[in-house]
Design goal:
Order of helices and strands: HHHEEEHEEEEEE
Structural class: alpha+beta
Number of helices: 4
Largest sheet: 8 strands, mixed, barrel
Strand order of the largest sheet: 2-3-4-5-8-9-7-6
Strand content: 25-35%
Helix content: 10-25%
Distance between the termini: 105 Å
Shape: elongated
Number of strands: 9
């Protein structure tokens, strides 16, 4: 029989018969892993619909603040304190809560932390450490999760007032405009020569991680540095 197979050219060596199924199995396994990466990533984006792409926050902002009641510093203006329009800012350290942000128009009250990571975003709003400290010239950029602290950010309109209290002063801003941009566009969060406040978060969507952002641009209208 083997001689006939050899003569006809259809003879297959034993080694090939053994190795071929192994190779096919390895190829199929590799394809399964590669093709599985995209569905896994897609599932991950469905799970992570919060502002930070790798962490979902579903607890209401009010409940989060109640849980953290002992940790949040109350920065308020002392009515008897001597103030002036000029003064010195105090630079915070990474992870420090150095301010509170209030906006009566949308019933917003949130602690502001210097720097940004997943743990800090659970606690409140975070200010980019590359941006200007509140009270100095430049663009102070603050963000928070869209489904917690900045859930109603898109409801702010021109003329609304935002107040930021720190341990060195109180700073009042007026909303000038609201813009929408893709997350790769750094125009509105980049450093600036003029003094302004930029609040931003994701555009809320039910499924997937949003590629769009909403920014509220504010200009200073009053400064009260503590003497």
């Amino acid at each position: 029989m083997k001689e006939k197979q050899k003569k006809s050219g259809r003879y297959t060596p034993l080694a090939v018969l053994i190795i071929t199924p192994i190779l096919i199995f390895m190829i199929c396994t590799a394809l399964t892993i590669v093709l599985g990466i995209k569905p896994y990533n897609k599932l991950t984006t469905y799970i992570n619909i919060a502002f930070s792409d790798n962490m979902k926050m579903t607890t209401p902002a009010s409940d989060l603040l109640k849980e953290m009641n002992d940790e949040v510093k109350e920065y308020t203006k002392d009515p008897q304190a001597s103030v002036s329009q000029t003064g010195e800012v105090i630079f915070p350290t990474f992870g420090e809560q150095y301010a509170t942000l209030k906006c009566e128009a949308i019933d917003l009250y949130v602690p502001v932390y210097w720097g940004s990571d997943n743990e800090l975003l659970k606690k409140g709003a975070c200010q980019m450490s590359s941006s200007a400290v509140v009270g100095e010239v430049g663009n102070a950029v603050i963000d928070a999760h869209v489904n917690t602290f900045f859930e109603d950010l898109n409801k702010l309109k021109e003329g609304d007032t935002v107040v930021i209290n720190t341990n060195y002063g109180e700073f009042t801003y007026e909303v000038k405009k609201q813009v929408e941009f893709v997350k790769t566009d750094k125009t509105y969060v980049a450093p600036a020569k003029e003094e302004k406040l930029t609040l931003y978060t994701c555009v809320k969507q039910v499924l997937g991680s949003s590629d769009k952002r909403i920014a509220v641009i504010c200009e200073p209208v009053e400064k009260a540095f503590y003497n």
